[in-house]
Amino acid sequence: MLRLTGRPCVVVGAGATGRRRAQSLIDAGAQVRLIDPDASALVKAPPACETQARPFAPADAEGAALVVAATDNPQVNHAVAQAARQAGALVNRVDAPELGDVTFPATRRLGPATVCVDSGGASAAAARVLVEQALGAIDPAWIGLLHAAVQQRTRIQNKLPPGPARQRALAGLADEGALRALQSGGPDALANHYQSLLNATPDVARISATVERG
How far apart are the C-alpha atoms of 85 and 196, rounded to whole Å? Predict the structure, then answer.
C-alpha cells in the first residue's frame, strides 16, 4: 500500500476506472488532479479532485509522485506513461498493468482494516468480486477488536519501554486470545485482557533484565 499523504498525483482519463483510481489516491492522502478533455466525464469526479478539462500534456507529470494512465486509448496511455517516467514519477497503466510500476488491488475498508485482492492483472472485475467475498468471511468481532486495539496501543507504548515486554503486550492486543475475550465476555472481558497484558509484562521485563545482568 502506498503512503501518499500530501503528495501530488495525476490521473489521466475520467472514466469509471480513472475515477476509482482517483478516489483510491484520495483515500491514501494524495493531492489528486484528474485530467480529461471531456468535461462531462469530470462532472462525476470525486469532490476532492482538482479537475482539468483538456488533453494531457507532458508537463502535467512534473512533480507528480504517481501518474495513472486511465484512458481508453492505448496510444495516449503509452504517451502518458512515457512522460511520467521521464519526470521520475511512478506509473499505473489501467490497460496494461504489467507495463506500469504500481497496481491497484480491489480495496474495501472495514473499520480500521483494509481488505485488498489483486488478481495479478487477470481481471479487475474478478478482484472486486473476490474482495467482497473476503469481506463476508470476516467475523465482525474483529472490527470491534481492532478499534479497541488502536486505542490501547498508545497506552502500552507510553507505559512500557521498548523491548520484549512491550512487544509481547502489543502482540496480544488483537490476537486470538483477545478475540475470544471479546466474543465471550464483551468489552469488559476485553478490558480485563488488556489489563492482564500490562500486569504480566513488568515481571517479564524484570526477569529479562536480571538475566542480562547475570
Answer: 53
- As given in the structure block, the three cell numbers for residue 78 are 503509452
Q: Output the CA–CA distances (angstroms, integers) from residue 187 to 24, 111, 180, 190, 195, in the order listed.
A: 33, 17, 11, 5, 12
Q: Render pLDDT for 76-91 as a digit per residue (tens, 0 to 9).
A: 999 999 999 999 999 9
How far apart CA 195 and CA 67 sit, in angstroms, is: 47
pLDDT over 80 at 58, yes or no: yes
Distance of alpha carbon 125 from the chain centroid: 19
pTM listed for this prediction: 0.70
Residue 98 pLDDT: 87
Closest by Cα among 78, 2, 76, 68 to 34: 68
DSSP the chain: ----TT-EEEEE--SHHHHHHHHHHHHTT-EEEEE-S-HHHHTTS-TTSEEE-S---GGGGTT-SEEEE--S-HHHHHHHHHHHHHTT-EEEESS-GGGSS----EEEEETTEEEEE--TTS-HHHHHHHHHHHHHTS-THHHHHHHHHHHHHHHHHHHS-TTHHHHHHHHTTTSHHHHHHHHHHHHHHHHHHHHHHHHHHHHHHHHHHHHHH-
Instruction: Give per-residue pLDDT as tens, 137-166.
Output: 988 999 999 999 998 999 899 888 898 889
